[in-house]
Structure to design on (1121 residues):
C-alpha cells in the first residue's frame, strides 16, 4: 500500500470491529501528537495516555484504533501498552493509589503503610475495591525519597504518610 | 584477517566478525540463544559469555559476551575458563526457571536448540522449587502451533518476524519476567514466512502445526536432499518421511539460494504427497464413461505399448512441474516433433523472452544471496511476495541494507543488529514497484504505482530511454510518467549495484521487454547491475531450455485429428486452458495416457493412467529461475509401507512404455543414464549432469544415509503387514541408502546433505557445522549448476512499445493476480494451504464499483470469450479503473489481457466455486454493466457460452 492509500484507509477507520471508537477529541489529540514526530510510532505512549485519561484505562478496542491512526501494527501498540506499568490494560478504580516500595521508603516503614492500606481498603496489590473507588498498586519510586514512606493518590503525592492519617487521606477521594 | 587466541591456540579469523561468529566458524562450540547467523547479535541472553584477556600476560581477564565483542586482531579469550563455564551454566539455569521441562511431550524435542545448549553447558539438575509462571496459548492459524510456557525470552521470533520478514502482527508484550510473544489477539499469522518461526525459535514455543497431526521425532524421520516444487525459486528443502508419509519439510541450507529461510507455501504445501486419493496403481478404462480398473505393472505396460503402437501419431504433453528427466523421456517416446512443453503459448512466449534476456541483456542474473547486495531495485509487474516469495524476502534484505551501510560509515559492524536498526530507522535503499495493485513490498518501497500492464511496460521503456537515449522513446508519454521515469532512472544510475526484477506473472511480453531494455541500458552505461526474471513454476526455466511446442499446439493437433493419441505428463490441462478447449481435444483423442501423482481432472480423462512419483518418491532435476539446475532425491520407497503401491518416476514409466512400443526388452534404466541422455540430447542442458554427484559417489567408501543413526523401529514398522522384515529398499539411482547405514557426518565436505546433524547439534543450527563460515557456503560448495550465463556481444533494444492502457466502455481488462496460497496447483491440494488461501473474489477498483453501484461482497459475474464465473466482489483501493483482477488458480478460463463484461450476479453463495470444480453461473439476472454512465455494452448477449 502506498502512503496515500495507507493514510486514506487509516483515517477512514479510527475504530476497530468491536465497536470501540476513539472520541473525536482524542483522535484529534493523537493526530496532533503524531505530527510532532518523524516516526509516527513515537507518539504511541502519548496516544495511550490520551485514551487512558478519558477512560481511566485502555480498553481492548483502543489498541487497533490507535494502531490505525499511527499506521503501525496493533501488536506494536499492545507491546508498548503492556510494557509500561502505568498504562492500565484492565479497568481500575476511580482513584489509583501508588505505594512506593523502593529502598528509602522501605527504610521508613513502607511495610506498615502497605499493611494499613490493605487492611483499610480490604484489597491487596493489583486489586480494586468492590465499589470501584480505589485500585492499589506498588510503584518502584515516586522521587520523594526525602519524604518516605511516600504514596500517590491520583495525581497527588503524599509523604511522609503517618499510618494514623491514612483513613482521613482516603476520605478526600470520594 | 585477524589472529585470535582461544584457550591458548592461535586461529586466523575474519576480523569483521564478532567472537561468537568467529568461534563457531572455527568449529568451536560456544552456547548461544539470541544470536542467529542471519539476524546478528543483540546481546540479550548472556549465554555466550567467554573470558577475555587484555594480552598474553593477563591472567585475570573479564567476562564478555562473545556475540557483542569484535574478533579484533590479537584477541585473547578462553571458552573453557572455569568462571566463564560457571557463568554460562547459571545463565541457562535462570533462562529455564519457568521452562516446563516437558521435552517428552514437546514437538521440538530431538531438534531443540535449548536441549542442545542445556546439555552443552552441563545444566542437568533443577534447583528452582517454586511456582512457574504460565501463559495462555493462542490460535495462530493452520501453520504454526503456540506453547508460550516453553519460552526463554530470547526475542528471536519478533526479530525474525518483524525486522527480517516485515511482519506486523507478532509482538512482544509485557516486561521483565512476564513477557509474552504472540499476536495482539488470537488469529492467523499474516506473514508469508511464519513457518520460519519453527526453526528460528530455539525451543518449542512455535512448532509445525501441520506436522503435529502425525508427529515423529527428527531422529525417526527419513530425509533426502530435495528441491521445493512449489515455485520457480528453487529453495533447497529436507522433507522428512515416516510410514510412507511426508511429515514435515525443513529448510536445507544453500549458501546462494534460500540459506536459512523458506516461505510458507514451500514449507507447508507438501500435503498433496500424502493424499489418500492419489493414484497408486495403474488404471485402465476403455471409454471415458467407464469405471476404471486397476492393472498390474506388466499389464499396464503391455496395454500402453499396444494402444500407442496402433496409434497413427502420438503427441506428448510435458510439464513444468515435472523433472527434466521425465520430460526428456516423454520427448524420447513421442519424438521431438510431437512434443509439447505443456505450457500455454502466451506463457511460453514470455519464457522464451526471459531466457533470451538472461543471456542477452548484458546483465547477469544474481543469486538470492547476491540480490541482497544490490542497492537500488526496480520491480516491474511482479508482486514478489505472491509469485516468488523467497526472492521477495531477499529483496527486503537488500532494501534494509541501507541501514548497514549507514552503520558501517559510523564504525558499527553489521552484526550489531539493534544498533544498526536504531541508527537506520526508516532509511532504506530505494525500491520501486509497478504492479496493477498493492504488493507485499510496498511498505518499504520508496514509491509504488498501481498501473495496468501496458502502462507498467511504458513506464519501463521510459526509464530505459532516460538511462540511455539510444533506447527507444515512448510515444505520447504523459508528463507525470516522464517525471517518475526520470526519478527511477536517476536512482538506478546513482546506485552502486542496480537490480531490475520482472517476470511472467502478468503474462505480458511488453513488461518483460521493458525490463530487458532497462537492463541493456544499464549495461551500456557500464553499471554493475543485475536482472532477475520470475518464472511461474518449479521447472518452467528447464522446460524452456528443453524446448517444445506450446500446449495449444498439442490440442490443435488432436482437434484437427492430425494426431489420435496423447501422453500427458504430470500436467492438469484443465488448470491451464478453458474446460471446453481441453474437453474437445481429449474427446477426439483415441488414446489418452496420463502420468501423474495426483488424481486431477485430466487423470480422470485417461484411458491409461500411470501412477507417477511426486518429488518425495522420485529423483530428478529442476532448473530454477536463476538458471540453476538442481537435483532432488527420492525421500522414501513408496512400496515399503504400501506394498500394493506401484508408484514409479515418470521417466521410468516412459522408458518402459517406449521399450514396449519398440518391442524391446525393458532394460534397466537409472537416474544417471537418463540425466546423461537428456544432457547429451539437449545442448542447453549439457551441464545438468554436474548438478549432483552420480550414484557411484561415496564418502569414505560409504553411501550416504537418509536416516539419522538413532532411527528406531525399523524392524517393527511393517509388523502390521508381515512379521518378516523385508530387505531394506535398494537405491540404484543415487548415492543415498534407505537406511541409517551410510555416511551422515559433517567432517567430510559434501554438497548433498539429507539432514543436518553433528554431535551435540540436533537443531537446524547444526548447519553451522556444514558451512565454511556461519552464514557462508557449504564447505564442499553450494549444490547445483548454473545453466544461463550472459553472452558477450552488443544487444539491440526492443522497439515495440504498447500504447497506453485505454478503458473500454462496458468492458474490463482481466488481470490474473498470482497468490502464494491457492495460486499454485499442487500445494492447493494440501489442506493447510487451502485453509490459508483468501476467499475467491473478483477484484475491482473502488471507482469502478461506485460507478457500477455495487458494494463489497456483492456477487458479480465476469464473462469473457472463454469463460464466465460468478464470485463475490472485493474492492481494491489501488487497482486502476477499467481492470478486473482474478486470483490465480481459480479458473483457467481467464488469462491476463482478456477483455470481459461484468454482470450483477445471483445471490452470493449460490454460485460459490472451488478451485477444482470450476462451477459456472447459470446466467445473468440483469444485463451487463457499463463502466461509464452512457455506454451499454453491445455484446449484451447474456448467457451464451462459446466453445
Amino acid at each position: 500500500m502506498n502512503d496515500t492509500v495507507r493514510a486514506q484507509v487509516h483515517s477512514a477507520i479510527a475504530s476497530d470491529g468491536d465497536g470501540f471508537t476513539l472520541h473525536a477529541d482524542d483522535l484529534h489529540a493523537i493526530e496532533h501528537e503524531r505530527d510532532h514526530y518523524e516516526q509516527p510510532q513515537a507518539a504511541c505512549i502519548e496516544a495511550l495516555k490520551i485514551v487512558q485519561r478519558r477512560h481511566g484505562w485502555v480498553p481492548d478496542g483502543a489498541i487497533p484504533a490507535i494502531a490505525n491512526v499511527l499506521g503501525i501494527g496493533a501488536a506494536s501498540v499492545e507491546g508498548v501498552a503492556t510494557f509500561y506499568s502505568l498504562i492500565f490494560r484492565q479497568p481500575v478504580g476511580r482513584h489509583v493509589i501508588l505505594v512506593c516500595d523502593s529502598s528509602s521508603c522501605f527504610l521508613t516503614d513502607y511495610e506498615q503503610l502497605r499493611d494499613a492500606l490493605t487492611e483499610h481498603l480490604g484489597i491487596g496489590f493489583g486489586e480494586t475495591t468492590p465499589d470501584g473507588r480505589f485500585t492499589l498498586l506498588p510503584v518502584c519510586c515516586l522521587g520523594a525519597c526525602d519524604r518516605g514512606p511516600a504514596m500517590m493518590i491520583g495525581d497527588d503525592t503524599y509523604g511522609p504518610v503517618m499510618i494514623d492519617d491514612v483513613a482521613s487521606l482516603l476520605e478526600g477521594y470520594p | 584477517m585477524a589472529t585470535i587466541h582461544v584457550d591458548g591456540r592461535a586461529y586466523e579469523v575474519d576480523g569483521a566478525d564478532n567472537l561468537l561468529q568467529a568461534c563457531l566458524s572455527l568449529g568451536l562450540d560456544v552456547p548461544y540463544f539470541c544470536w542467529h547467523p542471519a539476524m546478528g547479535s543483540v546481546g540479550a541472553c548472556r549465554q555466550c559469555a567467554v573470558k577475555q584477556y587484555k594480552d598474553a600476560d593477563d591472567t585475570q581477564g573479564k567476562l564478555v559476551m562473545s556475540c557483542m565483542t569484535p574478533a579484533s586482531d590479537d584477541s585473547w579469550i578462553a571458552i573453557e575458563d572455569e568462571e566463564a563455564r560457571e557463568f554460562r551454566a547459571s545463565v541457562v539455569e535462570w533462562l529455564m526457571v519457568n521452562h516446563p521441562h516437558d521435552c517428552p511431550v514437546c514437538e521440538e524435542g530431538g531438534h531443540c536448540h535449548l536441549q542442545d545448549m542445556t546439555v552443552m553447558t552441563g545444566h542437568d539438575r533443577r534447583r528452582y522449587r517454586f511456582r512457574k509462571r504460565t501463559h495462555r496459548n493462542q490460535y495462530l492459524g493452520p501453520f504454526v502451533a503456540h506453547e508460550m510456557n516453553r519460552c526463554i525470552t530470547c526475542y528471536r521470533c519478533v526479530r525474525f518476524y518483524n525486522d527480517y520478514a516485515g511482519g506486523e502482527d507478532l509482538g512482544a508484550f509485557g516486561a521483565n519476567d512476564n513477557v509474552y510473544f504472540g499476536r495482539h489477539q488470537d488469529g492467523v499469522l499474516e506473514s508469508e514466512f511464519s513457518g520460519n518461526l519453527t526453526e528460528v525459535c530455539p525451543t518449542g514455543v512455535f512448532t509445525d502445526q501441520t506436522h503435529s497431526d502425525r508427529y515423529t521425532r527428527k531422529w525417526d524421520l527419513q530425509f533426502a536432499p530435495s528441491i521445493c516444487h512449489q515455485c520457480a525459486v528453487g529453495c533447497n528443502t529436507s522433507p522428512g518421511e515416516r510410514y510412507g508419509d511426508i511429515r514435515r519439510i525443513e529448510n536445507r541450507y544453500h549458501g546462494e539460494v534460500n540459506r536459512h529461510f523458506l516461505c510458507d507455501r514451500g514449507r507447508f504445501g507438501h500435503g498433496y504427497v500424502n493424499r489418500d486419493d492419489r493414484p497408486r496403481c495403474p488404471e485402465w478404462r476403455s471409454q471415458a464413461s467407464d469405471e476404471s480398473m486397476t492393472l498390474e505393472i506388466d499389464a499396464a505396460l503391455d496395454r500402453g505399448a499396444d494402444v500407442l503402437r496402433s496409434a497413427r501419431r502420438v503427441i506428448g504433453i510435458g510439464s513444468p512441474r515435472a523433472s527434466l528427466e521425465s520430460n526428456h523421456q516423454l520427448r524420447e517416446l513421442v519424438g521431438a516433433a510431437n512434443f509439447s512443453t505443456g505450457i500455454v503459448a502466451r506463457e511460453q512466449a514470455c519464457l522464451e523472452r526471459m531466457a533470451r534476456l538472461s543471456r542477452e541483456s548484458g546483465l547477469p542474473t544474481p543469486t538470492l544471496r547476491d540480490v541482497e547486495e544490490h542497492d537500488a531495485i526496480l520491480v516491474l509487474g511482479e508482486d514478489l511476495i505472491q509469485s516468488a516469495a523467497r526472492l521477495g524476502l531477499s529483496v527486503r534484505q537488500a532494501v534494509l541494507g541501507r541501514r548497514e551501510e549507514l552503520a558501517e560509515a559510523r564504525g558499527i559492524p553489521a552484526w550489531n543488529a539493534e544498533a544498526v536498526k536504531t541508527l537506520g530507522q526508516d532509511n532504506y535503499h530505494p525500491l520501486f514497484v509497478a504492479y496493477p495493485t498493492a504488493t507485499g513490498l510496498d511498505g518499504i518501497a520508496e514509491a509504488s504505482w498501481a498501473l495496468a500492464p501496458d502502462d507498467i511496460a511504458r513506464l519501463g521503456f521510459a526509464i530505459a530511454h532516460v538511462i540511455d537515449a539510444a533506447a527507444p522513446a515512448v510515444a505520447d508519454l504523459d508528463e507525470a510518467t516522464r517525471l517518475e521515469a526520470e526519478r527511477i532512472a536517476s536512482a538506478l544510475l546513482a546506485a552502486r549495484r542496480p537490480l531490475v526484477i520482472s517476470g511472467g506473472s502478468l503474462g505480458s511480453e511488453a513488461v518483460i521487454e521493458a525490463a530487458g531494455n532497462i537492463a541493456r541500458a544499464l549495461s551500456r552505461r557500464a553499471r554493475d547491475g543485475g536482472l532477475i526474471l520470475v518464472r511461474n513454476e518449479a521447472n518452467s526455466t528447464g522446460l524452456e531450455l528443453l524446448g517444445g511446442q506450446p500446449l495449444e499446439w498439442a490440442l490443435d493437433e488432436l482437434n484437427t485429428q492430425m494426431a489420435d493419441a496423447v501422453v500427458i505428463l504430470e500436467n492438469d490441462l484443465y488448470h491451464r486452458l478453458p474446460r471446453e478447449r481441453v474437453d474437445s481435444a481429449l474427446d477426439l483423442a483415441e488414446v489418452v495416457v496420463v502420468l501423474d501423482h495426483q488424481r486431477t481432472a485430466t487423470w480422470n480423462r485417461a484411458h491409461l493412467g500411470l501412477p507417477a512419483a511426486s518429488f518425495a518418491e522420485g529423483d530428478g532435476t529442476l532448473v530454477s529461475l536463476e538458471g540453476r539446475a538442481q537435483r532432488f532425491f527420492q525421500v522414501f520407497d513408496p512400496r515399503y509401507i504400501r506394498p500394493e503401491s506401484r508408484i514409479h518416476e515418470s521417466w521410468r514409466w516412459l522408458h518402459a512404455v517406449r521399450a514396449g512400443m519398440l518391442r524391446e526388452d525393458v532394460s534397466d534404466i537409472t537416474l544417471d543414464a537418463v540425466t546423461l541422455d537428456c544432457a547429451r540430447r539437449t545442448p542447453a542442458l549439457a551441464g545438468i549432469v554436474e548438478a549432483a554427484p552420480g550414484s557411484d559417489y561415496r564418502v569414505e567408501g560409504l553411501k550416504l544415509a537418509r536416516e539419522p543413526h538413532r532411527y528406531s523401529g525399523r524392524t517393527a514398522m511393517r509388523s502390521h503387514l508381515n512379521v518378516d522384515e523385508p530387505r531394506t529398499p535398494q537405491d540404484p539411482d543415487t548415492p543415498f541408502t534407505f537406511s541409517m547405514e551410510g555416511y551422515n557426518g559433517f567432517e567430510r565436505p559434501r554438497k548433498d546433505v539429507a539432514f543436518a546433524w553433528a554431535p551435540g547439534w540436533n537443531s537446524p543450527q547444526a548447519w553451522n557445522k556444514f558451512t565454511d563460515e556461519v552464514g557462508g557456503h557449504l564447505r564442499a560448495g553450494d549444490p547445483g549448476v548454473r545453466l544461463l550465463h550472459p553472452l558477450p556481444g552488443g544487444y539491440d533494444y526492443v522497439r515495440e512499445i504498447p500504447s497506453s492502457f485505454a478503458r473500454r466502455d462496458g468492458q474490463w481488462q482481466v488481470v490474473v493476480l498470482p497468490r502464494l496460497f491457492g495460486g499454485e496447483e499442487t500445494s492447493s491440494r494440501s489442506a493447510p494451504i487451502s485453509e490459508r488461501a483468501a476467499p475467491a473474489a473478483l477484484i475491482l477498483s473502488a471507482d469502478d464499483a461506485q460507478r457500477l453501484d455495487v458494494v463489497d461482497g456483492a456477487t458479480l459475474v465476469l464473462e469473457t470469450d472463454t469463460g464466465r464465473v460468478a464470485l463475490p466482489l472485493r474492492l481494491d483501493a489501488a487497482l486502476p479503473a477499467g481492470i478486473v483482477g482474478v486470483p490465480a488458480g481459480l479458473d483457467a478460463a481467464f488469462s491476463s489481457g482478456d477483455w470481459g463484461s461484468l454482470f450483477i450476479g445471483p445471490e452470493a453463495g449460490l454460485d460459490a466455486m472451488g478451485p477444482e470444480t470450476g462451477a459456472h453461473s447459470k446466467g445473468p439476472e440483469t444485463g451487463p454493466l457499463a463502466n461509464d454512465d452512457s455506454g451499454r455494452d453491445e455484446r449484451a448477449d447474456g448467457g451464451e457460452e462459446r466453445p
Notes: Residues 93 and 165 of chain A are 21 Å apart (CA to CA). The domain at 24-83 of chain A is CATH 1.10.10 (Arc Repressor Mutant, subunit A).
